Amino acid sequence: MEALNKTSLPPLAAPVSSADVHPPHLSPAYKSTILRSPTQPLMPVRELIRDLSMPVFGQSVLREFDNDLTKNARINGEPIGERIKVAGRVLDETGRPLSNVLIELWQANSAGRYVHKAEIHDAPLDPNFLGGGRVLTDADGNYAFHTIKPGAYPWGNHYNAWRPNHIHFSVIGHQFEHRLVTQMYFPGDPLFDYDPIFQSVPQHARELLIAKFRMDWTEAEFALAYQFDIVLNGRHKTPFE
Amino acid sequence: MEQLRQTPSQTVGPFFAYALTAEQYGYPYDSLMNHTLVSLDTPGQRIVVTGQVWDGAGATISDAVVELWQADAQGHYRTAPIEGNTATHTDRGFLGFGRVGTGTLPGHRYQFTTLKPGATGEGSAPHINVMLMMRGSLRNLYTRLYFADEPEANAQDILLNAVPAERRATLLAHRKEVNGEIRYIFDIHMQGSDETVFFEL
Ligand SMILES: [Fe+2]
Fold first, then answer.
1. What is the count of structural domains for chain B?
2. Which of the ends of chain B has fewer CB neighbours closer than 10 A, N or C?
3. pLDDT at site A7
4. ipTM of the complex in this document
């Protein structure tokens, strides 16, 4: 497959709003969207809904190694692969840090294989790696977890399709509209130009999905580090404003 | 005021189950939420909310995630923090939040045990907020379940009345009693003449 949008990029347009970063529902290069995306426009309702506050998650929802995917599924040794730390902040659109945000994570192992039963990629499972975890943000909106850098994997979208390395994130904040599901990518991945899921995001916003390498956050002789900050949809007025 | 750009949405993909719905799918990880939104001592009429998610070719979708968020029988949303590291904690009280995948029941059904919510205030009929995620969907989709057997309350609901009249029926769940169990059937259609109304928050 040829690189998508690799050449003749349109000039970078300033985003119309902070929400003008999301992919369209229908993105035909990602074939599964064709039968699974709404054909009618979504109905804007935020002026009609008074309050969609959600309860936060307390610290007791976490077990000891929930935020360490290198440790939370060990059976007889350490998982294979490159140990990394991923950390960042969760903010609302005004830059206010959000505490007690639940981030659920899942990813392939270092060979590019998911534990999921529907996964058929011919790459080895790692008996000591599940690839699932969760973490809460602290009072300043910070989160951090350790994991193994996921491998790239092929998928059936088109001939010789491969996903760039990525970690799946599910985020539950303080409001129903905070709800976000996304994927974090790694800097400089050569598969960006060939991946219709990454490319579904408007070009000016793709950088927001790429973690930053942070040499100053690396743990010497132990793990490299990446920063991935998350900004949630939150236009509702809060009592703090 | 200058706003930060939001983090773009991406699809949940096909391989979420061992993290988001591990217990339901039999993976060795616990789940913070599941198909049950109530605990045994929560007051209110017990109901089952169930249905299927249909694609544009009329096939049921086997790898969707459905989340519900609703008020209790008095119309109050939970505000107390959620504690406890599994969904099977019995002392959580009314959670009001649930999550299931469509990959484990015949016909790719989703199914929740909950209670019939009360109206949350003036101009609001009893309803359940529904969030839908799946492979092939690049963004979360938000819709609402209203109860077909509440025609008077529904007629007063501000949001439901803002929906074009010919599409309101896509938001109505239909009551069915099966062996003394009260079920509300709520199918979600991604496309077609019955395409479900989705909302933008
Ligand atoms: Fe993936």
1. 1
2. N
3. 40
4. 0.96
